[in-house]
Design a protein that fits this description.
- The complex is a heterodimer of chains A (162) and B (420).
- With 162 residues, chain A is of the alpha+beta class.
- Chain A has a single domain, classed as Roll (Nuclear Transport Factor 2, Chain: A), CATH 3.10.450.
- Chain A has three helices and seven strands.
- The longest helix of chain A has 23 residues.
- Classes of the chains: A alpha+beta (162), B alpha+beta (420).
- Strand 7 of chain A pairs parallel with strand 11 of chain B, so a sheet runs across the interface.
């Protein structure tokens, strides 16, 4: 159900800002701060549209706790070997799909551009975020975030969150 | 010099000393790539194309590739599995343009030539012309113009196909060891959990090496080593079929000995006792096999890897894209009778494998750093000698024997000599 227009605008503003901050933390390589914007028993999934639309489980990344998000980042810093690269998120407008109590559902299109050390920038991944945002606390946090990607062919590997 | 002398000299160059040498040009020269399509992918070999579970019902189809040739795998009304080249017999258009689906027959959109699911031509619009004009010539025989049909073989629900009429039967091509280990994993009905597709900017043979290489696994992949999922100190084996085409690597994680392992790996980057997980649920699985084996990498020549890593099960299909890239298609599966907890375990452990896999993502980078370093190289060779440099089985994991086996077969099929 949709909230009254003024409230809805405010929720949209909060959701847009949350997504912008989310993208900024990843793009600026402030990955250690990135899990702070999820509730502790969150869901974070990066899954191909091919699997998502067939209701298949197999995801590139599937985390069901904030701890798993932290582990992904620690693994990136300490364990994984990957080509040096940076992301740039380009976000479309965030649309509030529904608001139930203090939980907002929202959708946002995204494109992630990747720049490697040779200086070339490519479209690495594009898709949409399907978010559940918890508005009950001091600041909005993701209860769940599903990145459904169209770019079915993952270039080389995926180490950074989308 | 005669060709025979050149060949003998080249052979000596690639086998001298203790160890195998492979000229880097096989990864970059398009001439080898062309010969591989003919001698390997369209030659006397079997290539993996699908899991039977992907084409469960009559009319189900999947489009994929053998080497670079597009093919369609279908399930006909009588339950038989067919593999045909995805190219209209008329003027060469793709007949099937979707990844998968279900259809009563196959129809080319260009001129609507229609084929049954076995590839036989069943319809040609305006075949007899319109109003007495046009139409196909009188001697046009529908039976002569079907889709190219390949031989099909199935072992343990894995579908293979071959262009060759001379290739040995699939069971024989795989050999008893490979069949045994396919059947070990495929011992009951499976359920496909999804696909992951990875594009690697390197030659496909670098991945064939990578999956026959127990030496790298604990040195490149810190996650494997630190959490004891795989270590070269584990009890395990590196075995091959009698032809040395295929490679079976397996290990038993229960054999870990933290004190001895710490000594073996010393200050290795990839043995990091400081690295702890906040959420250990990722590594909580179940023992599924009585033999205690926790890791199986079964590399089947030329284009398949069947794997078990903890509770993740998958096939990886290698699809070459020119000589400098390949696509790796991971199809993840569980068993049809998995309970809710097992489904949750597999879902979570999928984090370990695939293009974003905590223990597997580095392989993409490993392939690319080789490809980037050998650009334009005509003379230099690699040096493969760990474990003795011969295609021999090992009852340990400090060997590159199966890589040598791959190259021995490659030399027989394609040859290392510089193309004329």
């Amino acid at each position: 159900m949709l909230a009254a227009p003024a409230v809805r605008l405010e929720i949209q503003q909060l959701a847009t800002e949350l997504n912008a901050l989310y993208a900024e933390l990843i793009d600026d390589d402030r990955l250690e701060e990135w899990p702070d914007h999820f509730v502790s028993d969150c869901i974070y999934t990066v899954i191909s549209r091919e699997n998502f639309e067939r209701n298949m489980d197999s995801a590139a990344i599937y985390c069901d706790s904030r701890g798993m998000l932290v582990d992904r980042i620690v693994s990136l810093r300490k364990a994984n070997i990957f080509p040096v690269h940076a992301y740039r998120h380009i976000l479309g407008p965030t649309r509030i799909v529904s608001v139930t109590g203090a939980l907002a559902k929202a959708q946002t299109s995204y494109a992630v551009l990747m720049t490697r050390t040779d200086g070339r920038t490519t479209i690495y991944n594009s898709g949409k975020y399907i978010d559940e945002i918890d508005l009950s606390g001091e600041r909005p946090m993701f209860r769940s975030k599903i990145a459904v990607f169209d770019t079915n062919l993952i270039d080389t590997m995926m180490v950074r969150p989308i | 010099m005669t060709d025979t002398v050149v060949l003998a000299e080249n052979h000596a160059k690639t086998t001298n000393g203790t160890g195998r040498r492979v000229p880097y040009r096989v990864f970059t020269d398009p001439e080898y790539h062309t010969r591989e399509q003919e001698k390997i992918f369209q030659g006397d070999n079997w290539s993996f194309v699908a899991l039977e579970a992907e084409i469960q019902d009559a009319g189900d189809f999947k489009s994929t590739f053998i080497g670079e040739t597009p093919v369609i795998v279908t399930r006909a009304a009588d339950g038989a599995v067919h593999v045909v080249v995805n190219r209209c017999a008329h003027r060469g258009a793709l007949v099937c343009r979707e990844l998968r689906g279900n259809r009563p027959n196959l129809e080319c959109v260009y001129h609507q030539w229609a084929y049954d699911l076995a590839g036989n031509l069943i319809g040609v619009p305006f075949r007899r012309g319109l109003k007495g004009q046009g139409g196909m010539p009188g001697d046009f025989d529908m039976k002569q113009h079907g889709l190219k049909q390949l031989r099909v073989g199935i072992v343990g629900g894995l579908v293979f196909a071959s262009f060759s009429q001379n290739v040995v039967p699939l069971d024989e091509f795989l050999g008893p060891l490979v069949v045994e280990h396919i059947e070990r994993i495929m011992h009951k009905p499976i359920k496909v959990l999804g696909d992951q597709r990875q594009y690697v900017h390197g030659n496909w043979k670098l991945y064939a090496e990578n999956t026959r290489d127990p030496y790298h696994a604990s040195l490149l992949h810190l996650f494997h080593n630190t959490f004891g999922l795989y270590r070269s100190t584990q009890t395990g084996k590196a075995l091959m079929d009698t032809e040395k085409r295929h490679s079976l690597l397996y290990s038993i994680a229960a054999s870990n000995d933290e004190t001895a392992d710490k000594q073996a790996y010393g200050d290795s980057r990839t043995f990091d006792t400081e690295f702890k997980l906040q959420d250990m649920s990722l590594l909580k699985g179940r023992q599924e096999f009585d033999d205690g084996i926790t890791l199986v990498i079964l590399a089947v020549f030329p284009n398949l890897v069947l794997q078990q890593i903890q509770n993740t099960l998958a096939v990886r299909q290698i699809v070459p894209k020119g000589q400098e890239a390949f696509e790796l298609v991971w199809t993840h599966f569980g068993y049809a009778d998995d309970d809710a907890e097992m489904q949750a375990i597999r879902r979570k452990q999928t984090n370990l494998i695939g293009p974003a896999g905590l223990v597997s993502m580095e392989d993409g980078e490993a392939v690319e750093i080789v490809q980037n370093a050998i650009v334009g190289e005509q003379q230099a060779t690699s040096f493969i000698a760990m474990g003795g440099g011969r295609a021999e089985d090992a009852d340990h994991l400090v060997t590159e024997g199966a890589i040598v086996g791959f190259w021995d077969n490659y030399e027989k099929l394609v040859g290392f000599e510089t193309p004329q």
